[in-house]
């Protein structure tokens, strides 16, 4: 019998290995699929999204585009929602009938359209002081959303260097110029916020009266005009040359003008500041040992729509050629694309899409075709030259892949509802019968992805790793369509490959480019050489090596020997430290006369440095467990000794200061405060006729519905890897505080986790994992994107992660307050705990008043707002700063609705106190949790046992530091 069993198993393995091979496709079939995909590209690209812009155009494909010019003045609005808009007669240097649109509410206008047709729309607006982020609006026509893309239109602000010249610190290094807003009028078309459609949106308007509504999502502005009409068709270069000849325009002679990239006058985002390149001796200007701001762009200049503008002085009228010294070393296998504007206009069609291919070295790109450089007619005087990020020919390919991701994720969720996340490999689920459309979807998207990979090869002229995931997914889909019975054994790889497509979209839509300088030259001039010679490179590397022995890389910016100086240690990245140093130099030192010596130091060396007397005066970004533990050992200053402490403490909520309090002392002030929120997928809950849970009873009602469809819910789990002290689980803390429990008794001498509220909270917490099978390990970002976890409680900083890394579900998710316990009066108790970081003053500080002045300045509203805005400007929305300053939070670039949700939850936040031996609480709470989960131990017995461990350690520590 065992022998027969072995034969059967071997035969089964052979079948599973051989049968899928029949699903392969030869080269001719792949080409046929690519051609088929090409012909269908202009048709339904996003068929799965019935409200997509492609479906909208398909619906109105036979409609004409009338040549009409309709202007709606902002001040002529007919109705509004929310606060009444303010009519203004002047803004900037212009006068007219304008209206001030706030960051909440909506404004509507009426317009009479003379003829049915598709119309483009543009908005003329003036930026107002806000939260320093781009302006965002939703567009409704006759009270309805025309298509999904109209949910969000981005209207950028303009930014410039604060000072005309780049300044240097006293070490001879260039200081990165601070970016400030340049207010002014702009006219921007209504176009795709993601850049997936190169041309502005066209809106169908029938003849007659219509209502145009703009709903405010983020930031205020003055609306001047809404223009409805058609954009002129751009001529091609051959047509432009004929115009030059008819007008008798001549080439200039003997002229060459160079504009350095770092001298840009305007940028569309504060991230587009001058940057440093020391990798090449050919970069201008250069220095071996000093920091020079000598280029602009790089990886910061990558998002569609981002633009940089330079002013160029033209010496005489005539025809010029244009060269750009650039480097694109980030995107291999796909070129980076830019659109050229001269004085706000695209000169001709060919410069709508300027490709910059991958190169690890600097290249001089002269704009032109294979036959000749393009010539541009410019008059003598000042002109503005703008380069804007665009996706070019890659845009329709990204849309196709985006469409595939959405539909494949939908199919994956349907499969998951039948098989669960871990299918039985020996069961035939008959998926092709239970999901009739599955095979057709697999076949369709296999063809689409095959076509996209071929088109990408044709566009770039090379075969690269960028098409690997496309071909891999296309093959798997084709094979699954032929052998659907194998799907349950390949479900995990299917999910991984779909996630890979999402990563591909994120990578390809980013179009980075770094610019050293731009050259405007007469056609006969030879362009400067971009790449350095081998000899100069060798000399550059050798001198760099020698200079590294004499350069202090830990010191940031100006260093001072003044009588009043504060040494500050910061433990985050160099970018953050540079921002802090620039702020201290131009604000704190100027206001107080106290110099700041900022050093970038690993936080782990704080204790040995303090013990050896080499520590700082002030340490920043310190984790919550350190202040009290150092303070009770007399290593940190009690801040309550300063006369104005009570006034300074009003900047924060009591919950933010709680972790730094011990008895009557306060050993730190909060910098950041992070707390949980409820995140949910609106589309999935709507599909299942569910709503976001408000109470735990609501949560218990939706759990079986989601579990029935093999979906999960997620609670926050304690970070157990890479941390010195395990903090108490935020999920348990939330339930504990809602039950009315506490972690410690009033004087912090014993754990209070043996109380009845604690026992109830612990049982409820473990029940979610024992009885309801909540996941213990998961990649929340990926599973939230795929819809496997449509409801999750996580720190509110998860918002930033989703905003950046999950553009395909933009508008399909939201976040709100956590579920709570309903009280007798009908209110809901939504208590949660918080985490964060602190700034502390060391006891060894000689000038404590100077250190206190720095701490007050650093935690103040203006400083926190500026740091938060500059960090977001520096690193994008993923770096949105979770400040603990209440007033500063109001000024950070949160959409108004999201800010209200945050403030509502913030009202319920309670801090977790720190006590001697408190590090045992998180550790043993996790031990008790694992004991119940793994060994099915009674919850009361498990928690009682480990509370005894906690109490023994607390008692030991109190004796050790003479607190008993």
Question: How is this structure best described in words?
Answer:
This protein is an alpha+beta fold and 964 residues long. Helix content is 34%, strand content 23%. The protein is built from 27 helices and 42 strands. Strands 1, 3, 4, 6, 11, 12 and 14 form a 7-stranded antiparallel beta sheet that branches. A hairpin with a 2-residue loop joins β31 and β32 (665-666). The longest helix is centred in the middle third of the chain and has 26 residues, at 394-419.
Major β-sheet profile: 7 strands, antiparallel
Anisotropy-based shape: globular
How far is the first residue's CA from the last residue's CA? Answer: 73 Å
If you average the pLDDT, what whole number results?
Answer: 87
- The proportion of strand residues reads 15-25%
What are the low-pLDDT stretches, counting only 5+ consecutive residues below 50? Answer: 1-48
Query: What's the alpha carbon Rg, rounded to whole Å?
Result: 31 Å
Structural class: alpha+beta
Number of strands: 42
**Tally of DSSP helical segments:** 27
What share of the residues lie within helices?
25-40%
Which helices and strands appear, and what pairs or packs with what?
Blueprint (H helix, E strand, L loop, with lengths): L1 H17 L8 H13 L13 H7 L10 E4 L5 E3 L4 E6 L2 E8 L4 E8 L3 E11 L7 E7 L11 E3 L3 E3 L17 E3 L3 E5 L12 E4 L2 E11 L2 E9 L7 H11 L8 E5 L5 E2 L6 E3 L16 E6 L8 E8 L3 E10 L8 E7 L11 E3 L6 E4 L9 E3 L2 E10 L3 H26 L11 H4 L3 H23 L7 H15 L8 H18 L4 E9 L12 H14 L7 E2 L8 E6 L3 H19 L2 E6 L5 H6 L6 E6 L2 H6 L13 H5 L4 H4 L3 E2 L2 E2 L2 E6 L1 E6 H6 L8 H13 L4 E2 L15 H9 L17 H15 L9 H7 L4 E5 L2 H8 L7 E4 L4 E2 L5 E2 L2 E2 L1 E7 L6 H12 L1 H15 L10 H6 L4 H11 L2 E2 L8 H17 L3 H22 L4
Parallel strand pairs: 28-29, 28-30, 35-36, 40-42
Antiparallel strand pairs: 1-14, 2-5, 3-4, 4-14, 5-13, 6-11, 6-12, 6-14, 7-8, 7-13, 9-10, 15-26, 16-19, 17-18, 18-26, 19-25, 20-23, 20-24, 20-26, 21-22, 21-25, 27-29, 30-41, 31-32, 33-41, 34-36, 34-37, 38-39
Helix pairs in contact: 2-7, 5-7, 5-9, 7-8, 8-9, 11-23, 18-19, 26-27
């Amino acid at each position: 019998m065992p022998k027969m069993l072995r034969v059967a198993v071997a035969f089964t393995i052979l079948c599973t290995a051989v049968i899928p091979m029949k699903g392969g496709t030869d080269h001719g079939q792949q080409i046929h699929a690519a051609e088929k995909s090409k012909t269908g590209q202009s048709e339904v690209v996003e068929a799965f999204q019935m409200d997509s812009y492609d479906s909208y155009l398909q619906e109105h494909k036979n409609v004409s585009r009338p040549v009409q010019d309709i202007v709606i003045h902002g001040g002529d609005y007919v109705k509004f929602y929310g606060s009444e808009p303010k009519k203004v007669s002047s803004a900037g240097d212009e006068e007219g009938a304008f209206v001030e649109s706030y960051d909440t509410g909506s404004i509507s206008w009426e317009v009479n359209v003379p003829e049915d047709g598709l119309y483009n729309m543009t908005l003329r607006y003036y930026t107002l002081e806000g939260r320093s982020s781009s302006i965002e609006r939703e567009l409704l026509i006759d009270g309805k959303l025309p298509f999904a893309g109209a949910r969000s239109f981005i209207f950028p602000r303009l930014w410039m260097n604060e000072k005309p010249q780049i300044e240097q610190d006293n070490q001879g290094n260039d200081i990165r110029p601070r970016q400030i807003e340049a207010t002014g009028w702009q006219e921007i078309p209504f176009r795709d916020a993601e850049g997936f459609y190169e041309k502005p949106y066209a809106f169908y308007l029938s003849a007659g009266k219509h209502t145009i509504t703009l709903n405010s999502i983020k930031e205020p502005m003055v609306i001047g005009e809404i223009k409805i009409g058609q954009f002129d068709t751009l001529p091609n270069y051959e047509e432009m040359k004929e115009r030059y000849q008819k007008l008798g325009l001549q080439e200039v002679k003997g002229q060459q003008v160079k504009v350095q990239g770092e001298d840009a006058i305007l940028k569309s985002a504060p991230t587009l500041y001058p940057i440093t390149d020391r990798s090449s001796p050919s970069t201008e200007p250069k220095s071996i040992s000093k920091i020079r701001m000598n280029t602009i762009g790089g990886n910061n200049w990558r998002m569609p729509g981002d633009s940089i503008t330079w002013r160029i002085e033209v010496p005489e009228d005539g025809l010029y050629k244009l060269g750009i010294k650039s480097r694109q070393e980030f995107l291999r296998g796909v070129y980076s694309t830019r659109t050229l504007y001269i004085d706000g206009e695209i000169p001709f069609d060919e410069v709508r899409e300027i490709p910059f291919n991958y190169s690890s070295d600097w290249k001089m790109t002269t704009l032109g075709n294979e036959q000749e450089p393009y010539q541009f007619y410019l008059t003598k005087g000042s002109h503005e030259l703008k380069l804007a990020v665009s996706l070019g020919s890659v845009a329709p390919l990204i849309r196709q892949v985006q469409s595939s991701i959405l539909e494949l994720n939908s199919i994956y969720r349907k499969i998951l509802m039948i098989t669960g996340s871990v299918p039985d490999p020996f069961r035939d689920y008959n998926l092709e019968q239970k999901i009739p459309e599955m095979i057709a979807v697999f076949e369709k998207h296999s063809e689409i992805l095959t076509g996209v990979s071929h088109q990408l090869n044709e566009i770039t002229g090379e075969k690269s790793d960028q098409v690997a995931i496309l071909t891999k997914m296309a093959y798997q889909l084709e094979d699954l369509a032929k052998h659907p019975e194998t799907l349950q054994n390949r479900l995990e790889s299917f999910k991984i490959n779909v996630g890979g497509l999402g990563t591909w979209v994120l990578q390809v839509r980013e179009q980075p480019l770094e610019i050293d300088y731009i050259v405007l030259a007469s056609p006969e001039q030879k362009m400067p050489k971009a790449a350095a010679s081998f000899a100069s490179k060798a000399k550059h590397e050798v001198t760099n090596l020698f200079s590294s022995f004499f350069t202090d890389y830990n010191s940031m910016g100006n260093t001072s020997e003044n009588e009043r100086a504060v040494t500050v240690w910061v433990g985050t990245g160099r970018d953050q430290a540079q921002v802090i140093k620039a702020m201290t130099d131009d604000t704190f030192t100027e206001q107080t006369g106290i110099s700041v010596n900022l050093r970038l130091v690993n936080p782990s060396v704080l204790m040995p440095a303090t013990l050896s007397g080499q520590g700082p005066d002030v340490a920043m970004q310190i984790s919550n467990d350190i202040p009290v533990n150092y303070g009770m050992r007399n290593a940190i200053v009690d801040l309550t000794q300063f006369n104005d402490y009570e006034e300074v403490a009003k900047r924060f909520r009591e919950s933010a200061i709680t972790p730094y309090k011990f008895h009557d002392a306060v050993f730190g002030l909060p910098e950041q405060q992070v707390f949980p929120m409820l995140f949910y997928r609106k589309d999935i809950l709507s599909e299942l006729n569910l709503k976001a849970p408000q109470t735990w009873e609501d949560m218990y009602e939706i759990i079986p519905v989601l579990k029935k469809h093999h979906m999960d819910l997620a609670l926050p789990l304690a970070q157990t890897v890479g941390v010195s002290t395990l903090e108490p689980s935020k999920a348990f803390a939330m339930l504990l505080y809602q039950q009315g429990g506490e972690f410690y008794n009033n004087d912090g001498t014993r754990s209070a986790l043996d109380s009845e509220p604690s026992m109830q909270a612990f049982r409820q917490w473990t029940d979610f994992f024992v009885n309801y099978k909540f996941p213990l390990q998961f990649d929340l970002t990926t599973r939230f994107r795929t819809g496997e976890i449509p409801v999750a409680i996580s720190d509110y900083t998860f918002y930033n992660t989703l905003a950046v890394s999950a553009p395909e579900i933009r508008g399909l998710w939201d976040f709100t307050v956590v579920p709570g316990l309903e009280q007798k009066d009908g209110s809901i108790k939504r208590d949660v705990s918080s985490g964060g970081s602190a700034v502390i003053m060391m006891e060894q500080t000689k000038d404590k008043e100077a250190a206190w002045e720095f701490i007050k300045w650093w935690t103040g509203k203006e400083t926190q707002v500026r740091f938060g805005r500059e960090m977001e400007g520096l690193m994008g929305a993923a770096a949105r700063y979770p400040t603990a300053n209440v007033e500063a939070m109001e000024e950070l670039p949160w959409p108004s609705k999201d800010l209200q949700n945050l403030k509502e939850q913030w009202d319920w936040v309670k801090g977790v106190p720190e006590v001697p031996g408190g590090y045992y609480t998180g550790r043993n709470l996790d031990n008790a949790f694992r004991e119940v989960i793994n060994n099915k131990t009674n919850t009361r017995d498990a928690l009682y046992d480990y509370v005894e461990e906690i109490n023994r350690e607390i008692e030991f520590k109190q004796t050790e530091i003479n607190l008993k």
